[in-house]
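Example 3.2
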Amino acid sequence: MNTNKLTAIRGAVLSFKADPFFHDMKDCLVYKEDAVIVMDTETAKIVKFGDAKDIIPTLDKQIEVKNYGKDSLIVPGFIDSHVHYPQTEMIAAYGEQLIDWLNNYTFIVEQGFKNKEHAKEVAEVFLKEQLRNGVTSATTYCTVFPQSVDAIFETAAKYNMKIMAGKVCMDRNAPEALLDTAQIAYDESTALINKWHGKGRAEYVITPRFAPTSTPDQLEAMKALADEHPDMMIQTHVSENINEVAWVKELFPQSKDYTDVYAKYNLVRRRAVYGHGIHLTERELDVFSETGAAVAHCPTSNFFLGSGYLNVRKLKDEKRPVHVGMGTDLGAGTSFSMLQTMNEAYKAAQMNGKPYTSLHAFFLAGKGTADALGLGDKLGQIKEGMDADIAVLNLKSTPIIEYRMKYAKDLEEALFIQMTLADDRAVSATYVAGKEVYSAK
């Protein structure tokens, strides 16, 4: 092993090895008060992890161990399961409700991505903000223009960052400048798959925007892509807004419900990730459970657009479990911070009368999302052999948090303080593929 390629960090470590919604927390939680993680920047993997007293004596003296100290917490890099990088420039736009917001802002902004240089500028800002917030991997929508896909993958490659992305496919109910056709969507998606999928850490995602913006012919084209690439991720939206659900019923009167529209085209399967899912019926949740499809929980966006509040515990029913990932859903989402996303997720759970602990929330933002995306064998855990994507949190990032932490009685309360009061200022450092790509100092 080339010691010049090794990075080592030390501090308290939090990770999960199983889903605490279905197992006792003691069987899921991995917590070490003083641990060392050794990462190989050549293979981009974690090569050693354990208690500092056990690991330090085994290390070559040339390896410098960066100690983040007792006020830190090292966690798996946060994973964003649903985000629109082209909407970075319109975050915090007065939105009204979903359809108005799309027409008044999104569809106008996305037309600018015909210009590759503009797309690259936005991609750079977006990824830097993600890294500043400890987000090391994301599943993002691009625009209808292939160059918007090139921009995000090219920029991510500079950081060796795991990004899943795809060209949005739309052939109706959007401005003329943003429409493709069934054939163009198929051809351009295929060309992008050949160009990017599996290149470095890039992963292509089949991306019909949502049922209202695709004709049956285009959904047939998406089916053809999905059938040709059975292990590829698919991303789209489902049951975000009551009016949207009613619109889909008008557009697809032969379908049982919103989910059935997608199921007819074999788009509901393992590694298919559906944004929102707030208003899914029991029948639809059965389909999600049977197929292994996932819901991306986007609470800041759902509250911002007045769409509703997802009941995570309802999805996490052991009789018919549904995969759930966390998503920021920028730019309807209001923060790049996964800590702030957890904060809003807690409020959504409270609105449903079904709260869950801070430990459950941290699970969802890491391993839970990795599992939902079908990437649990690579991301979301700190253990040997996993991808070396890590966030280091400062547990005393502001004066009020430092004061409040004096009275935290245990780990669960300390984490709740972080997810309620903390934001980007809590991220001390971010490591991607074993390399430090962001430092607060």
